[in-house]
Amino acid sequence: MSDHSDHSDHKKVRLKVRRQDGADRPETRRWEEFTLDWQPQMNVISALMEVQKHPATASGQKTTPVVWECVCLEEVCGSCTMIINGKVRQSCTAMVDKIAPNGETITLEPMSKFPLVRDLVVDRSRMFENLKRVKAWIQLDGSHELGPGPRQSQENQETAYPLSRCMTCGCCLEACPQVSAHSDFIGPAAINQVRLFNLHPSGKMHASERLDAIMGEGGVQDCGKAQNCAAACPKEIPLVDSIAEVGGQATKRMLFGWLLK
Fold this sequence. Notes:
alpha+beta; about 35% helix; about 15% strand; elongated
């Protein structure tokens, strides 16, 4: 116990945070640096919490608390995504001892592919709107008793489970070179959900509607096959496979869909 306290007395954590007081206040865009005492098992979120307790820069200048977003603290909710040392990732699993083992400065920036709200918080609404666009749900007819649902094979379950782990965190969109302010590309997350729900025995009934939704402007054909998405995904979802599979489904529908009408 004494070793930890002795260590924390001397070791410091240094943060360099990109700040902006609001989306409509670009003139407030700035860097602020903070120094705080190291603690065991510290992650970026707990470091930001320490700044929140005593909002003063490393030079001693009083400032406002840094604004960020988090909920679950165990890489499930997807809300704490930010750019840490130049790489998009979840801040709850960014352990200080791993990313700055020798007290290096940790740089924090908001994601750049989403509208800024304030400081490290961005608006991920486009992702949720895209889930609506592709009908990322199982559509049931009313609320009355429908009896047991169709059986899912073990093989189907094993394929679907990794796809279901998506937490809409935005890492894949941030890493994708095709996603920008000048692009309507729907992004890997929504395309992956098309694959997931088209795999489902009940979801298959609306597969054509989902495919139609990603065959238009900004759809699956806009993927540049950079494969950055799979590398950035914290849940290791096979996004490249999903894009290829859904692209194949969309091509079949485009070529042979008229036979089904």
